């Protein structure tokens, strides 16, 4: 599936029958579809979220009429965050929502997109006219979609596919976001570990690709090591961004924002001291030295063609290499750093979740 593709409205039919005092809808059945419900008060014109009741029951407040908000053809509702303006999609039709990007928590009404708001306006206008004129109306959304030349009817707004589709490990709802990291719009759980773990699994797969020529193997192992360390840093930065949301003094926040996960031991000391998150807990001294060397190897592989410089020697006390020597990465080394960083990353995320 292509990213940023337009995903059309799911379709269906809305029927307004004033003589029976009913407004109902019919879903399309041959593709994904979802609906949530709002209520328009005929007393004061306010719009509120109204959960669907069980069969034969109604949850609609007295004097209110239902407004049905439909998903796109993939079963997702588009959402626009009132705080950061970020756009995402989710199949959650719940009353309250977290923004996956900035964690803003609000009523679903605050997350309506512009096109959904236009739809609600025209929906209300149409229903009020039908009630006033006491005339039955059927709005055939499928028909509108079929006859649409430029996708311009406010009744059938479309959505836009983003980049990473997630299924929350806790509450199982699905959401589609820009970039990689985000929290579940329904329960707020971060997807950080899933993203990191998937990247590490891809790297392990690369290592097991035995079809490589011998001379390209070493640069492949070096590339895997570089990527592994970068993925760890991206994951840790995402957690750091979340830590910055925790109330703290300006100077503490400043210090948190300056943490560099390239200097992994220092970063661990700071997080242990400030948040009781010791993500190197249980890692032997020997393995800590190994992790530190890998982080510094990544640095010279990226910035110095893999040639040992003074800074590398100073940061690692590595006596197995000499100044100006070119380093090579072994396959076992790459496997070891992947496994160590997976458990370290898990500890960091678990530590964050235990205090959030
Ligand atoms: Zn936001
Ligand atoms: Zn969830």
Question: Can you put this structure into words, describing what you see?
Answer:
There is one protein chain. The protein has 2 domains: 6-177, no CATH class; 192-355. Helix content is 40%, strand content 16%. The protein is built from 9 helices and 14 strands. It has helices at residues 114-133, 141-146, 192-207, 214-243, 250-257, 264-275, 285-303, 310-316, 331-355, and strands at residues 6-7, 13-17, 22-26, 35-41, 47-49, 64-70, 77-80, 87-90, 96-98, 105-107, 137-140, 159-160, 164-167, 174-177. β7 and β8 (87-90) form a beta hairpin. α3 (192-207) packs antiparallel against α9 (331-355), α4 (214-243) crosses α7 (285-303) and α4 packs parallel to α9. The protein binds zinc ion (2 copies). One zinc ion binds at residues 168, 170-171, 173, 184, 186-187, 189.
Q: Report strand %.
A: 15-25%
Q: State the end-to-end distance.
A: 34 Å
Bound molecules: zinc ion
Poorly predicted segments: none
Work out the helix count.
9
Total number of strands: 14
Mean pLDDT: 94
Give the helices and strands as they follow along the chain: EEEEEEEEEEHEHEEEHHHHHHH
Largest sheet: 4 strands, antiparallel
Helical residue percent band = 40-55%
The Rg value, from CA coordinates, equals 27 Å
> What structural class do the secondary elements suggest?
alpha+beta
**Which strand order do you get reading across the main beta sheet?**
7-8-14-13
Structurally, the number of domains stands at 2
Q: Give the overall silhouette.
A: elongated
In short:
This protein folds into 2 domains: 6-177, no CATH class; 192-355.
């Amino acid at each position: 599936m292509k990213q940023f593709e337009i995903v059309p409205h799911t379709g269906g039919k809305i029927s307004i029958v004033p003589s029976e005092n009913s407004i109902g809808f019919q879903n399309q059945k041959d593709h994904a579809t979802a609906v949530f419900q709002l209520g328009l008060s005929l007393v004061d014109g306010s719009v509120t979220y109204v959960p669907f009741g069980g069969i034969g029951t109604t949850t609609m407040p007295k004097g209110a009429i239902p407004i049905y908000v439909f998903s796109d053809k993939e079963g997702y509702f588009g959402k626009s965050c009132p705080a950061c303006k970020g756009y995402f999609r989710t199949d959650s039709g719940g009353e309250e929502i977290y923004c996956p990007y900035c964690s803003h928590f609000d009523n679903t009404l605050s997350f309506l997109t512009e096109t959904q708001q236009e739809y609600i306006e025209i929906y209300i206008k149409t229903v009020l006219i039908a009630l006033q004129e006491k005339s039955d109306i059927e709005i055939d959304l499928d028909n509108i979609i079929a006859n649409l030349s430029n996708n311009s009817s406010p009744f059938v707004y479309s959505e836009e596919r983003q980049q990473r589709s997630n299924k929350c490990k806790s509450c199982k709802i699905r959401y589609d976001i820009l970039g990689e990291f985000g929290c579940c719009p329904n329960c707020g759980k971060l997807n950080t570990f899933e993203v990191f773990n998937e990247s590490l699994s891809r790297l392990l797969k690369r290592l097991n690709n035995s079809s490589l020529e011998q001379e390209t193997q070493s640069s492949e192992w070096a590339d895997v090591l570089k990527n592994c360390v970068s993925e760890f840093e991206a994951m840790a930065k995402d957690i750091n961004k979340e830590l910055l949301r925790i109330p703290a003094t300006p100077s503490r926040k400043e210090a948190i924002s300056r943490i560099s996960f390239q200097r992994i031991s220092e970063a661990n000391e700071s997080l242990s001291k400030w948040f009781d998150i010791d993500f190197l807990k249980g890692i032997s001294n020997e393995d800590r030295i190994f992790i530190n060397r890998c982080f510094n190897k990544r640095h010279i592989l990226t910035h110095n063609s893999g040639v040992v410089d003074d800074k590398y020697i100073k940061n690692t006390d590595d006596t197995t290499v000499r100044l100006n020597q070119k380093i090579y990465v072994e396959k076992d080394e790459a496997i070891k750093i992947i496994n160590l960083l997976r458990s370290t990353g898990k500890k960091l995320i678990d530590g964050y979740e235990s205090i959030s």
